[in-house]
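LAB NOTEBOOK - FOLDING QUEUE
OPERATOR: T.R.
BATCH SIZE: 2
PURPOSE: Compare the predicted structure-token outputs for two unrelated chains run back to back under identical settings.
PRIORITY: normal
REVIEWER: second-year student, initials M.K.

ITEM 1
FIELD SEQUENCE / FIELD STRUCTURE:
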Amino acid sequence: MIRFLRGFCANEAVVVTALNYLKEHFSEPVNMKKLAEMVGMSVSSFYQNFKTLTGMTPLQYQKKLRLCEARKLLMTESDATTAAYQVGYESLSQFSREYKRFFGVSPSQDVKKLREEPYTRILY
């Protein structure tokens, strides 16, 4: 996920700080302007450096974290509604749309597969 090439991103440490913050707070709404300020960058520089290092925008990264965590919850007998709200989604329909777009199947279809063969599936 992170492109560790020496000199590839001049602000690597700053972006890693933001990555860690997003990992710890993925279920919370994140104000990108405040996040950029937290790491001492303008919003445009932050987005550019973040995307250079990760290949995705901060919001795409947060979405990926949320969906992967929801998938873990679904494997442990959680239902889609509970999982969606636990990872920070406010709308079940939005969660279902994004889940299907990301994993290629609906949460209910994925749960069925995951629970049938939980140890042979890759979560990330």
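ITEM 2
FIELD SEQUENCE / FIELD STRUCTURE:
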Amino acid sequence: MLEFFEAELDDLQFSGDININWDKQSRAIELEFTLNVTKSQELAVEDQNGELNESDEISYEDAILFFDESKIDGFEYADNYLAVIPFSGRQGLNAPSRAWCFQLSPRPIR
């Protein structure tokens, strides 16, 4: 799965950053990303504290957790992630998880 992520993420082109963190002991992959955008003057954006952002540059940071459901219950950490997605050890992603990932892909997954 790590090889898949690395290959797919290398091909992405966007204004931001992506980091992959692998926890070998719990067999969990944390996909952290930062998206940077420039907003138009007419648009008002509040941060997570409800403060109005005066800058034209906006950064959004979040993470997705992929976890081996035989090792940990990743759903316990759902409040800390944009999404938590289980996989079944070496069998990989189950059908609902694969469908969710296909929706995110800007092009067909190899």
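REVIEWER COMMENT (ITEM 2): The two ends are 12 Å apart (CA to CA).
FOLLOW-UP: none requested
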